[in-house]
Design brief:
431 residues, mainly alpha, signal, Adenosine 3'-phospho 5'-phosphosulfate transporter 1, 3'-phosphoadenosine 5'-phosphosulfate transmembrane transporter activity
Length: 431
């Protein structure tokens, strides 16, 4: 149902829009829509047999009749222990540990440590992401160099390191008893892979500042997914701030400079890929929110999702023969190897800083830090890669960040008000 409109919508791009970046489309196999369907076919070759196996074990009532050495593994993957938490205030994270007898100086140091860790991890990640996807490697006076084109390999690199870090953390620290069926992580994993792929691929067609602002606007589809997936309701101020973000992003995207540089032109392909990123990422967060009904820590969630992410990406890469091709590219360009490894390290460390910051200071402080990070990312990208922002575009950026800070302020007020409610009343659910 959705494939035909997408193909028809992409035809004008193939005819006109792609002339903006002719070097990207050396062959039909380099076209993003073709690669998307090839990657999806690779994931389907794993998902479909897995789905059939799960249905087979459920029809056979394997939980009651199964025996043998494979029983614990199948039980964990298909059925789980079905233990859910009855009382969980925030569906996404465990209750924040309140500091006890901690000096003000110690708390300030912790806050600075968290802020510095988040900023360093994600600002470096953003700069490297744009470098890897938009610049060439091995360029000399006589040779133009070559670009790395396989976004899926970068996703695999990020996920394999995140899987390793989360696994070591779970092994070395005490974690809650795991109760969720393992296969349920595959839904969030698949949408997470596709959102990351769209994010990397979009940088071939749009500037990094545009991508950062588009990420800020994902509040809108997250709210829509929340209504569809979790049946949530929202306050009036959430709709207001979502509308302000939409206006600000529109101002930035529609603003035009007289001598706009090629790298800052927002093509139709970039818009489609950004929309894909936002939709897939919105589903991921809402599905993970539902999974947190089981007794699990955020690191267990990180481990479970990345298990399937590694399985899907390495399977698809092997089927396409792209894994060896990417490894050969790494062997030809040591600079790319360093960038890809550092990109993965920043992504994994950033996730750990997220968990630690929210546990120590709560979601409001974390949101403020990450909102500032988005502003710094736009500024850094413009300074390093020479992107231009018009006056109207700058006003749009200001509107977006004003709306984001307004959301943080309103949410903190709502949280304080909810604490004063009688025991029988509950506040409206929020994203």
């Amino acid at each position: 149902r959705f494939c035909l409109p997408l193909v028809l919508a992409s035809l004008p791009v193939m005819a006109t829009g792609e002339e903006i970046v002719p070097a990207l489309q050396d062959s039909w196999g380099d076209f993003w829509l073709f690669r998307f369907f090839v990657n999806a076919a690779g994931y389907a070759s794993i998902v479909v047999p897995g789905f059939l196996l799960i249905q087979y074990f459920k029809r056979r009532n394997y939980l009651e009749t199964g025996r043998g050495i494979c029983f614990p593994v199948i039980k964990s993957c298909v059925f789980g222990s079905e233990v859910k938490s009855v009382h969980q205030e925030d569906g996404s994270l465990p209750p924040r540990a309140e500091p006890t007898e901690s000096s003000t100086a110690r708390q300030v140091f912790k806050l600075l440590f968290c802020a510095a860790g988040l900023q360093a991890s994600y600002l470096t990640w953003g700069v490297l992401q744009e470098r890897v996807m938009t610049r060439t490697y091995g360029a000399t006076e006589t040779e133009p160099g070559e670009k790395f084109k396989d976004s899926q390999f970068l996703v695999f690199m990020n996920r394999i390191l995140a899987f390793t870090v989360a696994g070591l953390y779970c092994a070395l620290t005490k974690q809650p008893r795991h109760g969720a069926p393992m296969y349920k992580y595959s839904f969030a994993s698949l949408s997470n892979i596709l959102s990351s792929w769209c994010q990397y691929e979009a940088l071939k067609y749009i500037s990094f500042p545009t991508q950062v602002l588009a990420k800020a606007s994902k509040v809108i589809p997250v709210m829509m997914m929340g209504k569809l997936v979790s049946r949530k309701s929202y306050e009036y101020w959430e709709y207001l701030t979502a509308a302000l973000i939409s206006v600000g992003v529109s101002m930035f995207l529609l603003s035009s400079a007289p001598n706009r540089h090629v790298s800052t032109v927002t093509t139709f392909s970039g818009i489609i890929l950004l929309a894909g990123y936002i939709i897939f990422d919105s589903f991921t967060s809402n599905w993970q929110d539902a999974l947190f009904a089981y007794k699990m820590s955020p690191v267990q969630m990180m481990f479970g999702v990345n298990v399937f992410s590694c399985l899907f990406t390495v399977g698809s890469l092997l089927e396409q023969g792209a894994l060896l091709e990417s490894v050969r590219f790494m062997s030809r360009h040591s600079e790319f190897t360093a960038h890809a490894v550092l990109l993965s390290v920043c992504s994994a460390c950033g996730q750990l800083f997220i968990f630690y910051t929210i546990n120590q200071f709560g979601a409001a402080v974390f949101t403020i830090i990450m909102t500032l990070r988005q502003a710094f990312a736009i500024l850094l990208s413009c300074l390093i890669y020479g992107h231009t922002v018009t006056v109207v575009g700058g006003l749009g950026v200001a509107v977006v960040f004003m709306a984001l800070f307004l959301r943080v302020y309103a949410r903190s007020r709502m949280k304080k008000r909810s604490k004063k409610l009688p025991p029988g009343e509950t506040p409206v659910q929020k994203v």
